[in-house]
Amino acid sequence: IIETVSFIKMLTMLPLLKKMGVDVVYMLPISKFSKKDKKGDLGSPYGVQSFTKIDPNLKDSLTGKKTTLEDEFKAFVEACHILNMKVIIDIIPRTNSVDSDLIRTNPEWFYWIKADQYQNYKAPFIEGLPNVTTPTIDMMEKVYNAEDTLRHINMFDYDPKSQNETLWNEIKDKKNLSELIEKHYNLRVAPAFSDYINDPQPPWTDVTFFKMYEDLPKATKKFLKNTDIPPYILNDTIKSNMYPGEKPNLALWEKLADIVPSYQRRFGIDGARIDMGHALPHDLLEMIIDKARAYDKDFTFIAEELQPQNAQKARENRYNLIISNGFVMEPRMFEGKLLEFMHQGLHLPIPVLAMGETHDTPRLASREGGETTSRLLTILNMFMPCAVPFINSGQEVFEKQPMNLGLDCTVDEQFRLPIDDPFYGKLALFDRYQFHYLHPRRWELPDILDFIKPIRKKYIKQITSKTGFLPLYGFNHPETLIGLSYSKKTKKNHHNTLIILANANPYEEVKRHINITDLRVKSSNKQMVGKLLFSTHESPRDFTQFIDYNHLDIHLGAGEIKIIEL
User: Fold this and answer.
1) How many CA atoms lie within 13 A of 293 on its CB side?
2) CB–CB of 494/487 below 8 Å?
3) From CA 245, how far away is CA 248, in angstroms rounded?
4) Angle formed by the axes of helices 282-295 and 259-267, to 10°?
5) In the chain, pLDDT over 90 holds for what percent of residues?
6) For residue 554, what are the β-bridge partners?
7) pLDDT at position 41 over 80
8) Per the confidence metrics, is the pTM higher than 0.70?
């Protein structure tokens, strides 16, 4: 029997995370999710059915009725805090499952379509516009003028309660509510879809959007010939940050703004990532952040912002850090994207996650260079300036199978495992799955991260400061050669410098003279004694013979990283 994870089982993982230097445990949604129109064996944790209930799949079978699920999550959070780890969860205030518990109390918060037309439901296709077009105002005028948009809007109807409240009161508390609504009203909750125009993705059948405003978007309703129509899902009505209405659905907003405080009050969580927070109405986003910070002024918010150019906006919205685009940039080392990303944090007003993979992307161990690349990037991310290192679950054992196919994936990504593997073709986000913790190199990355932990700690102020960093280059510098340096003054008024050199070419060695003239001048470092503190290819040793005042003579094997201290 393949059991799903539980908070009790996760307690046994905490010593491993502590060994690797992890001080924040960030979890995907833990709220109760729906199995209606589900994806995979289990459904998606993003198809939340109840914000306040924890998903029953997370209850441990070993404890039975001796403890409640809530007790077990409390114990997990407390254990993390004892180990000086913080706990961050995902919240999803923009969408809910198509059989959300909130439908019983507030059907008017949702969009509804005629059930007998459900099989034909899809986002309208707009002739003449390319795939994945941003819904700017000029594009939305074309959307509303399209014949297929009229077909789409005509599928929608008013919510069941407003159509017949007496009947609604008779059926709303019955177990099979969805079936009764379809039988008596010919209605189904409208599935969500991408807010980009002509996005080839099919509708997301397990989730729907909340109706954030009681009226139509102010900027686009002029494109409608008749505005006295049922509420509908379209690229503008679901992108409330760009297209707000004039009548906020305040009762819904109050409910959404209390999700985080409810977890703070009951469990003492330390942070949250707001799923698609940038697409929420600005005033609602402020409510969510204000209420959490009123309870805990140091509460952390992660912005699901993948574009670094939007970092300033995230800072203005009072986020602490952004996800950014490392999972796209880092694996493209031969295109110079890794080198570019390593310097990204220096130019942004808010920290980014230093990451090569997420739960939505291909695994690093399946990318160019395989496990060699995965090892190098995992270590290198610990020293990226002004960034927060991120390790995706399973990354530490070179997992090859992605959890989801959401971002930057190829069509064959789902089949990275050998065909005889019991989890061939499975996706951990939706299916019963086990990471390959018996991988023959399973201790390699944990042992390395444990070893470099005190090195990072010694220079942490410089790594997180924009003034403590200097990039290093050599003559005829390949884009796969990464050079980072951090300098600090010691108590004896000496100047020590930490140098990280990485060869991101997993196939060929590289030999270079690294220019350290600027380093000497900027840091006042005149030290001529060098120590190799760490290498993926050799043991620590004296490095003095490879140093002169202006150059560092360096040899790096394929995929090697060296950490040197002057």
Assistant:
1) 14
2) no
3) 7
4) 10
5) 83
6) 512
7) no
8) yes
Which ranges constitute the DSSP H helices of 146-192? 147-153, 160-163, 165-171, 177-185
Tell me how far apart the alpha carbons of residues 354 and 363 are, in angstroms, rounded to a whole number.
Answer: 15
Rounded Cα distance between 19 and 17, Å, is 5
Quick one: tokens of 249? 């659905």
CA distance 257 to 78: 24
**For the chain, the helix, strand and coil percentages under 3-state DSSP, each to the nearest 5:** 35, 20, 45
- Distance between CA atoms of residues 90 and 75, nearest Å: 19
pLDDT for residue 1 = 57
- CA dist 149 and 146 (Å) reads 5
Strand-pair category, 300-303 with 95-97: unpaired
The half-sphere exposure of 164 on its side-chain side, counting CA atoms within 13 A, is 10
**pLDDT computed for residue 490 by the predictor:** 78
- Cα angle 132-352-343, degrees, rounded to a multiple of 5: 100
Whether 301 and 273 have beta carbons less than 8 Å apart is answered as: yes
Q: Which residues pair with 303 in a beta bridge?
A: 274, 322
Let me know how long the chain is. Answer: 566
Tokens of 530: 């060098």
Within 241-329, strands assigned E span 271-274, 300-303, 321-322
Q: Is 166 left (phi over 0), alpha (psi -120 to 50) or beta?
A: alpha
Q: Kindly give the pairing relationship between strand 495-503 and strand 481-489.
A: antiparallel
